[in-house]
Amino acid sequence: MNDFIFAAAFYGLAGMTILSAAGVVFLKDIVHSALMLALSFIGVAGLYVLLNADFLAAVQILVYGGAVAILIAFGVMLTRRRNMKESNPNNRWVIYASFVSAAFFAICGWALIGTDFKPVGQQVNPEAAVEGLASLLLGDYVVAFESAAVLLLVALVGAIILAKGAKEA
Amino acid sequence: MTIGLTHFLLLGTALFCLGLYGLLSKRNAIAILMGIELMLNAVNINLIAFNKYVAAGSYTGQVFSVFVIVVAAAEVAVGLALVLAIYKDRLSTNVDDLDWLKW
User: Fold this and answer.
1) At B46, which CATH number?
2) How confident is the model over B26-45, as a mean pLDDT?
3) DSSP for residue A73
4) Hey, where are the domains in chain A?
């Protein structure tokens, strides 16, 4: 019964994620694409919950469902175009793009189905991910963690200067 | 049939390929950024699924996806700032118009 609930949740969230991701790339109006992108991010957050990553699910909703979706919506609204109905056109290589994507999916899917992934290390069932994540981030990965903080600061300042322009000193 | 690692990996592959299609086939720079975001989400699903099914008990996969989220947030902020700066200059977000380096 528990397996059945897990499978039902997986298929529901996977269908929501994939359908809204297909909406992002196939819808003609870019505002609809941006809304579908936010829906897809929420579906991915639900999948993180299924994968025992509750902290990352919260981060996904905050960063992607909140910040990135709002940024993309602002980007859509700040760049104006004449006809909103056809605001998300394909370029002239759409045939090749669909062929490359389908071929990549076929090759990866074939490789995945043929591979037997064996578990490594000791298998314990973690209670909550936050404690383990925190001790790793502030222990083994503390240099990368601080570099990521500096990277975010630099990206923030760079984005403001690129979008607004800096006064000549 | 129980849901295993392969299901999550196939889902991640499908999401990645949709993002790849959007990245390659769109003319609008913001739509291309959306495709990149979908691809980064697919990578995160893969990392966390491997963390649960292959290396349960360690959190290395989740730590990696934290860093992927950080870099993706930085990327979308700088990318949209670039798109807006180009739009102010050229009144267009069509990437086919951005051929100043071609001669």
Assistant:
1) 1.10.287.3510
2) 93
3) H
4) 1-103, 126-169
Within 67-86 of A, beta carbons closer than 8 Å to B belong to 67-68, 71-72, 74-76, 78-79, 81
Is B77 a domain residue? yes
Instruction: Give rounded-to-5 percent helix, strand, coil for chain A.
Output: 75, 0, 25
Name the residue of chain A whose CA is nearest to B93's CA: A79
Contact B57 A122 (CB under 8 A): yes
Distance CA(A104)–CA(A127), nearest Å, equals 37
What is the dotted CATH code of the domain comprising A1-103?
Answer: 1.20.120.1200
Q: What is the mean pLDDT of chain A?
A: 87
Do B63 and A137 count as a contact with CB atoms less than 8 A apart? Answer: yes
The stretch A14-38 carries a mean pLDDT of 93
Q: Kindly determine whether residue B2 and residue A3, on different chains, have CB atoms separated by under 8 Å.
A: yes
Q: Is A55 helix (H, G, I), strand (E, B) or coil?
A: helix
pLDDT at A127: 60
**Residue A169 confidence (pLDDT) above 60:** no
A15 reaches B (C-beta below 8 A): no
Mean pLDDT of A77-90: 74
Residue B34 included in any domain: yes
Q: Is residue B102 a part of any domain in this protein? A: no
Domain count for chain B, please give it: 1
**Which DSSP state fits A88?**
S
Partners of residue A6 in chain B, C-beta under 8 Å = 2-3
